[in-house]
Design brief:
Helix content is 34%, strand content 19%. It is of the alpha/beta class. Among the domains are: 264 residues, Chloramphenicol Acetyltransferase (2-Layer Sandwich), CATH 3.30.559; 95 residues, ANL, C-terminal domain (GMP Synthetase, Chain A, domain 3, 2-Layer Sandwich); 73 residues, Non-ribosomal Peptide Synthetase Peptidyl Carrier Protein, Chain A, CATH 1.10.1200; 201 residues, 3-Layer(aba) Sandwich (Rossmann fold). The strands form 9 sheets. A 9-stranded mixed β-sheet has the order 8-7-16-15-17-18-19-20-21, sandwiched between helices. Helix 18 links the parallel strand 18 and strand 19. The longest helix has 20 residues.
């Protein structure tokens, strides 16, 4: 080479260039390219990106033969561009198709040698030009390639501004694990076969590369008449099998471009034949012949005929029904429904608490030819009203205890278990193509939407999943799912059409991890399905699993770590996925160690389609995506529901024809899920997230738009949006971002939302905003919302921890809740605490102190100060910190402080026959905050203490205890059942001591009624009356009578076993210390003997009798319970909904509290507070 130009000269020229107007012009161009930010390209990866940038590399290539290369060059020429620009445009279009992005950056090489005066430059002077791609995949490729040609020429015209200078000027926030600005590069090598080295013979060889700077780097290498398309890649992000697949896809894409360059890019074929066939196989569930012509209730009837005497359903706290009993009672209800005008294809509300009545209700409604609409009684009344109106329910199946909540309903209410009331000649014939149920899910417009599911849909899903579960008559299925949640469908139907037994957890047990653990250890079920959140709570509660249990997770993402823990503890573990619109489950996956190793993310893959279900993963233009590429999941097949009730517009938006030219019979529809997923190479599907604002929290499907719509209705709010954030435990929480009206506060908004939304939809966290961030379209920019500062959530008046317990709890709360500043007056739940965090808190307390607190303690003592007070009581229980049976034992006192402080006279609650006082918790929570409350539990429950022999001794002991706290009075007394008699005797002794007793409240306590277990009835006449009452009750309401009697018998049986787990309907004591269990039997027997011996005497006192409206046992005086003969100053009767065992369950507990509150306020006026 003559007169070669040296690198030093080139460097001096570049330095001088920086001061020129040309450099300034280049700078302006490049800064303008990224004036609205720098887009980041997200290539579908095989592995999670390492936290720090790595450079391990490899290369895979595909060779284009001479004929194919010639064809490519000819098409490029016809498009009026170069081979380089044509291939770059094709690669950019391909990237857009596999990422779904229309705005990203591709780096191209620019050689300094091509600039004027540098033709003889001897140096490596290669720059990187970040060409920004902003494409519209609706345009044709022939149009797009012209756009790319212009962008490339512009880039080359402005190449005299270095990449490094641009990065500095843009002030891009650098990431430790990815390249800044450019992550993908493209290059075309110059041909090397024309190199000339004089007389030397030269051979060109490529040095293998084992490093890679970019995520991917495409290098086209001409080799004679052929071209090698080399795909260099980072081996910590991609594997070679995926890259080989991408090479085949790109070649197919090039073939489509050459064949149909005038076709929109979005419609060009991307998949080679072999991959299309593989994807089709992945998405097709096995074709099976299930009995889809039969209805759910008909399948149950077949099973009931086979095993009539077997237990079909059993509450974990007692009540049970055989298959025959359930079938007969459901049939009775069906006849009553038909008599009330219920017809096929109508919708009947199901409004019940957790009990076997739910099964009677739903099977009865189905037998009547109607569909059931499950409504949780815990919903706010406004939502209950909406659901009934939207579904057009003219009849609601319910129970007596809930009738007050339906006072607004102008239709007909039927009790699930009201007994026979005549029969029509024939029930409607069942048809499997008719609706079976309507499940309401959250709606983005501010109101929920009802999904109508047919019998044939449910039958297909149930039979499909049972191919893997193989549930049979030997199984016991444990149910914790709400009947308003579609995970309940397998529990309620699959269990009973296979001859298994359903174990229905009561409301308290299913919410308390420790109680749930105890229940599972007792019943030893073989099948249980629950959300991952519930499984996590169970493990945190110390559950060790058992080898016969098959665990099913569904409703939300299933973390791999949790799945591995369950797999170690259970016989089998399954993960199920499916929207309500496609009937419970659409995919299914058995979780094994091998499967977990194949899952690239943090969550278990959702598996493959169940039988008779088809899956399609499509891009935004409804074109199939390659394996490993994210797309939206569409679901078809036999599980596809009928759509949304009364919402044809929304149904048309979400249920689309497979073929846009077809006339939409249901078999040709696909449900558009809005879920972002991808196929793994094995055919399993990985869930990646949502494409909209729908979220899943603890299994509940929530549309953020529904919450926002309600928030923005509040007069306290100027503008609000809702987002999801993670708390310190890693659990998702709802956060409200609020621009407040002047003078508004969080508590007011929280109260407003609780009246209109279910509790799980009320945000736990609130972020105060001056204004919500907006994008260029003036819409709220959710990505710009600040992350909630969880460390500053405390709103209580600052009070530092002082005691050892307060300091311990403060440190635990900070860690669990992620809050830095805390006051001992802060409330656990107001800081965002939830059930999972509560279980973790109790576990940490046990680890740190050895003290085993029941979970309910936190609900009653939810501030640091109050909970520390409980711990302090336990720590002082033994001298020198001694423990009982390895657990910290409290110093046993019959007097239990529930709430102290306030100016009112204290209220003392005496235990019932259950000996403990936990059942009062529902009553307490509804009483005023400034009402001091104490409870009295039976002496003798603690080791080393003898129980008392007589009612008089019990009363005297309890008086001695309360006088230590309140030496002068006055004394407001109340007692439940047996406790009413003890409270009466306490009042007698206090009055004899000239003490003031302004209140004596008796809760369903009878004046010397022979309580269950007391034995002798006194005389034959009384026996006959009692027998007559019980027979009449059995005939009038057999289900309720049997349920009540079984609960009482179970209670007695548990006492005889020495177990103080009083399974009274939903009021189950949470946990009794192991050391006290053996002594419960002796105390119970002493109490019953004392009752038998006690002689009631008249007393100059007024009595407030709170009696249950639903009479379940014989009473000689059902009006006054006999107290009018003994209360010489009068008797006031307060009639309360419910029965003896459900008196304190909500909503009855609230009714008792309201009446009691009125009496307390009356007697509290002008009276001195009790001393301390």
């Amino acid at each position: 080479m003559k007169n070669p130009k040296q690198l030093s000269v080139y460097a001096q020229e570049q330095s001088a260039l920086r001061q020129s107007s040309l450099f300034a012009e280049n700078e302006k161009y490049w800064l303008g390219q990224f004036a609205d930010g720098v887009p980041v390209l997200h290539l579908p990866a095989d592995y999670s990106r390492p936290p720090v940038k790595t450079y391990g590399g490899a290369v895979e290539k595909i060779s284009f033969d001479a004929a194919f290369t010639k064809q490519l060059r000819a098409v490029a020429a016809r498009q009026g561009t170069t081979f380089y620009v044509f291939m770059l445009a094709a690669y950019q279009a391909y990237l857009s198709r596999i990422t779904g992005q229309d705005d990203f950056v591709v780096g191209i090489a620019a050689a300094g040698h091509n600039l004027p005066g540098n033709q003889h430059l001897v140096a490596h002077a290669i720059g990187l030009l970040p060409v920004r791609v902003q494409m519209d995949d609706g345009v044709s490729f022939q149009k797009y390639v012209k756009y790319v040609r212009g962008r490339v020429l512009d880039a080359f015209d402005h190449q005299q501004f270095t990449y490094g200078s641009l990065v500095k000027k843009l002030k891009i926030e650098r990431s430790a694990n990815r390249n800044t600005l450019v992550s993908v590069a493209f290059n075309l090598d110059s041909p090397l076969d024309h190199l000339f080295f004089g007389d030397l013979t030269a051979t060109t060889r490529a040095i293998p590369r084992h490093y890679e700077t970019f995520d991917t780097f495409i290098n086209l290498k001409p080799v004679g008449d052929k071209v090698d398309f080399e795909w260099n890649f980072n081996t910590d992000i991609f594997n070679k099998e995926t890259i080989r697949l991408r090479l085949h896809e790109f070649k197919q894409f090039l073939q489509a471009i050459m064949a149909e360059a005038d076709k929109p890019i979005a419609r060009l074929r991307l998949l080679p034949d072999f991959e299309s066939q593989q994807i089709a196989a992945f998405g097709q569930g096995d074709k099976m012949d299930f009995p889809l012509h039969l209805c759910l209730h008909q399948l149950f009837e077949q099973q009931a005929a086979k095993t009539p005497a077997k237990v079909a359903v059993q509450m974990t706290n007692g009540a049970r029904l055989t298959y025959r009993e359930l079938d007969e009672r459901a049939t009775d209800l069906a006849h009553r429904l038909v008599q009330e005008g219920v017809q096929p294809d109508t919708f009947v509300g199901l409004f019940l608490d957790r009990s076997p009545d739910i099964l009677i209700g739903l099977y009865g409604i189905l037998k009547a030819g109607a569909a059931y609409v499950p409504i949780d009684p815990r919903n706010p009344q406004e939502r209950i009203r909406f659901l009934l109106n939207d579904a057009g329910c003219r009849v609601v199946v319910t129970e007596k205890a809930l009738l007050n909540q339906l006072s607004f309903f102008d239709g007909k209410t039927l009790l699930a278990t009201a007994g026979r009331n005549g029969r029509p000649r024939q029930l409607p014939a069942g048809r499997a193509d008719r609706p079976a149920y309507v499940i309401y899910t959250s709606g983005s417009t501010g109101t929920p939407k009802g999904v109508v599911v047919r019998h044939e849909n449910a039958v297909n899903t149930l039979f499909a999943i049972n191919r893997l579960l193989k549930i049979s008559g030997d199984d016991k299925v444990y149910s914790v799912s709400s009947f308003a949640f579609d995970m309940s469908i397998p529990d309620y139907f699959l269990t009973l059409i296979t001859g298994a037994t359903l174990l229905l957890a009561d409301e308290k047990t299913k919410k308390d991890g420790f109680a749930l653990r105890t229940s599972l250890e007792h019943f030893q079920p073989t099948i249980m399905q629950a959300t991952p959140t519930t499984w996590q709570i169970l493990l945190l509660s110390g559950w060790q699993g058992h080898a016969r249990l098959t665990a099913i997770a569904g409703g939300e993402g299933f973390p791999k770590e949790l799945a591995a823990q369950l797999a170690d503890r259970c016989k089998k573990v399954f993960n199920g996925y499916g929207p309500t619109e496609t009937t419970i489950y659409a995919t299914w996956q058995e979780v094994t160690p091998e499967h977990l190793n194949r899952c690239p993310g943090e969550y278990v893959a959702i598996g493959s389609p169940i039988a008779n279900v088809q899956l399609h993963i499509l891009d935004k233009n409804q074109q199939p995506v390659p394996i490993g590429v994210p797309g939206e999941l569409y679901i078809g097949g036999n599980g596809l529901s009928s759509g949304y009730l009364n919402r044809p517009d929304l149904t048309a938006q979400r249920f689309l024809p497979k073929d846009q030219n077809s006339l939409t019979p249901n078999s040709n529809l696909l449900y558009r899920t809005g879920d972002l997923v991808r196929y793994l190479p094995t055919g399993e599907i990985e869930f990646l997230g949502r494409l909209d604002d729908q979220v899943k929290i603890r299994g509940y499907r929530i549309e953020l738009g529904e919450i926002e719509a309600v928030m923005n209705q509040s007069p306290l709010v100027e503008q609000a949006v809702v987002a999801v954030c993670e708390d310190a435990t890693g659990s998702p929480r709802l956060a409200g971002y609020v621009v407040w009206q002047e003078g508004a506060d969080r508590e007011g908004l929280r109260a407003f939302l609780k009246e209109k939304l279910p509790g799980y939809m009320v945000p736990a966290i609130y972020v105060d905003m001056d204004a919500l961030p907006t994008n260029t379209s003036l819409k709220v920019d959710r990505k710009a919302l600040p992350r909630p500062d969880l460390s500053q959530l405390s709103t209580a008046e600052k009070e530092a921890p002082v005691t050892k317990g307060e300091k311990l709890l403060t440190n635990i709360w900070k860690e669990l809740l992620g809050v830095e500043e805390l006051s001992v007056q802060d409330d656990f739940f107001e800081l965002g605490g939830h059930s999972l965090a509560a279980v973790q808190l109790m576990a940490r307390i046990r680890e740190s102190t050895g003290i085993k607190l029941p979970l309910t303690t936190l609900f009653q003592h939810s501030t640091i100060k109050k909970l520390a007070g409980q711990l302090n009581g336990y720590n002082n229980s033994q001298p020198n910190g001694q423990t009982t049976n390895g657990k910290a034992g409290p110093p046993f006192s019959s007097l239990v402080c529930i709430r102290e402080g306030g100016s009112r006279p204290p209220l003392y609650l005496v235990h019932g026959g259950g000996l403990h006082v936990l059942f009062y918790q529902n009553l307490v929570k509804h009483l005023p905050e400034d009402q001091p409350i104490y409870a009295l539990q039976a002496k003798g429950l603690n080791e080393g203490e003898e129980p008392l022999d007589t009612i008089e001794e019990m009363a005297a002991h309890y008086i001695s205890e309360i006088k230590k706290q309140n030496p002068h009075g006055p004394y407001c007394l109340a007692g439940y059942s047996l406790g009413g008699l003890i409270a009466w005797e306490m009042a007698a002794q206090l009055k004899a001591d000239n003490r003031e007793v302004p209140l004596l409240a008796l809760f369903d306590a009878v004046a010397k009624y022979e309580w269950a277990g007391s034995g002798n009835t006194g005389n034959l006449k009384k026996k006959m009356k009692k027998l007559g009452f019980n027979v009449g009750l059995l005939l009038k309401d057999p289900a309720r009578a049997i349920e009540y009697k079984s609960a009482v018998l179970k209670m007695q049986f548990q006492h005889l076993k020495g177990q103080l787990r009083m399974a009274w309907h939903n009021n189950k004591t949470n946990e009794i210390e192991e050391g006290t269990i053996p002594f419960g039997k002796a105390v119970y027997q002493k109490c019953m003997q004392a009752y038998d011996k006690y002689v009631l005497k008249p007393l100059h006192i007024h009595v407030d009798l709170f009696k249950a409206k639903e009479q379940m046992f014989y009473l000689h005086d059902p009006e006054h319970y006999g107290w009018d003969q003994f209360a010489l100053l009068g008797l006031t009767v307060h009639e309360i909904e419910g029965n003896h065992l459900t008196l304190f369950n909500d909503p009855h507990g609230r009714q008792v509290a309201e009446a009691l509150k009125r009496r307390l306020m009356e007697i509290g006026v002008g009276l001195p507070a009790g001393g301390k």
